[in-house]
Automatic annotation (TrEMBL):
Pathway: Protein modification; protein glycosylation. This is Hexosyltransferase. Beta-1,3-N-acetylglucosaminyltransferase that plays a key role in the synthesis of lacto- or neolacto-series carbohydrate chains on glycolipids. The chain crosses the membrane at residues 7-24.
Length: 396
């Protein structure tokens, strides 16, 4: 009898402990960390739900953006590197802003060890106030643009631009969905091409050119200038495809895919060929070379800059949140940083191939392959691929 009583007591004690554990797990609320801002939610919560109600209250929405940008702390390594220090200061002070215009060059530690392109990037002072030389203020007239193709091009790339115009970049409507095209340019560092560019724009009305030197490391600046332009002149664009002038795009298929997205995704989309766990190139011979004295750590997940799509509704907020993201010379990495600051991570789509990988023509023309964008194509290849795709010459 005594033994049975002991067993009964043990069973009751066990059930009591289990019940107590369940109660604690259900009722106990994990305390919030004091340093975590109330608006810095987990990645991929739609930031528009927070920002749009504040859009007419400058102080409040900038404060909200600064709180959101605290998510970059997971990216910023503690280091004496130039970018890391600059970003830490931006995150600690609501009053500081990135992209200031400075009249005098700021002295930089170990700048002589940097490649010339990075030296020029730093000496520009992070200014994004450059005058327009050629503009298209009426490109998105009536705010009915479904997809705006914003293509980065160098002034001398006449053949590439013409190939895009004659193929996948043709301005037209797919059903009631309007597609518009602009090319984004700076100024050539070599011969003066202004007369040729003015003639080209007179024929096609699709060039946007700013008064800055068009270099590889200035692509970040080009992106920022475009966001400012789109915020002003194309606020109603449903989607924006940012890409290089050497990509081939199945525009009808992209329009079709975007048309099928649910409403939640249409307003908070950042989609492309996602790169994860990338680190800076430390080889001085690479055009992507970033010295450790400039940046320490890994890169955030980002969509390859050859071509990606994002929601037009995010345009003004991407432009504004960059006030709290120190300028970085690799444009697609910087874009990933800005999306991370908004709390959005890139969505991977297998149809976007922005690196040089072997692509069979049958893969491109077969709908089952889902290829939407491929990179590193010559003007001749773009024309040939479009002809074959349009004429359904190749079959699955």
């Amino acid at each position: 009898m005594l033994r049975c009583r002991k067993v009964m007591i043990s069973v009751i004690a066990l059930f009591t402990l289990v019940a107590l554990k369940i109660y604690i797990e259900v009722m106990y609320e994990i305390p919030k960390l004091a340093e975590r801002p109330s608006t810095a939610n987990e990645l991929n919560r739609n930031p528009l739900s927070i920002l749009e109600p504040l859009q007419d209250q400058d102080d409040l929405f900038m404060a909200a953006l600064h709180d959101m940008a605290q998510q970059l702390r997971r990216l910023v390594d503690t280091s004496d590197s130039y970018w890391n220090n600059a970003e830490q200061q931006l995150l600690e002070s609501e009053n500081m802003r990135a992209w200031p215009c400075r009249t005098a060059n700021e002295p930089f530690k170990e700048i002589t060890d940097y490649p010339e392109s990075l030296q020029i990037f730093l000496q520009n002072g992070g200014c994004r106030e450059y005058s327009l030389i050629i503009d298209q203020p009426r490109k998105c007239q009536h705010n009915k643009t479904f997809l705006l193709l914003a293509i980065k091009s160098s002034p001398q790339n006449f053949a590439q631009r013409q190939a895009v115009r004659n193929t996948w970049g043709t301005e037209r409507c797919y059903g009631e969905r309007s597609v518009k095209l602009v090319f984004l340019l700076g100024v050539a560092s070599g011969p003066d091409l202004s007369a040729l560019l003015w003639y080209e724009d007179g024929q096609y009305h699709d060039l946007i050119q700013w008064d800055f030197i068009d270099t590889f490391f200035n692509l970040t600046l080009k992106d920022q200038l475009f966001l400012g332009w789109a915020k002003k002149h194309c606020p109603g664009a449903r989607y924006i495809l940012k890409g290089d002038d050497d990509v081939f795009v199945r525009t009808p298929e992209i329009v079709k895919e975007l048309s099928l997205l649910d409403r939640q995704k249409t307003r908070a989309l950042y989609m492309g060929h996602v790169v994860t766990s990338a680190k800076p190139y430390r080889d001085p011979q690479s055009k992507y070379y970033i010295p450790h004295s400039f940046y320490a750590g890994s890169y955030p997940p980002y969509a390859g800059g050859g071509g990606y799509v994002f929601s037009g509704a995010l345009t003004p907020w991407l432009y504004q949140v960059s006030h709290f993201v120190a300028p970085f010379p690799i444009d697609d990495v910087y874009t990933g940083m800005c999306f991370m600051a908004l709390g959005l991570k890139p969505t991977s789509h297998p149809g976007f191939q922005t690196f040089e990988v072997p692509i069979k023509k049958s893969d491109l023309c077969c709908p089952k392959k889902q290829l939407l964008l491929v990179h590193k194509k010559t003007p001749q290849e773009i024309l040939q691929m479009w002809t074959e795709l349009k004429g359904h010459v190749l079959h699955c």
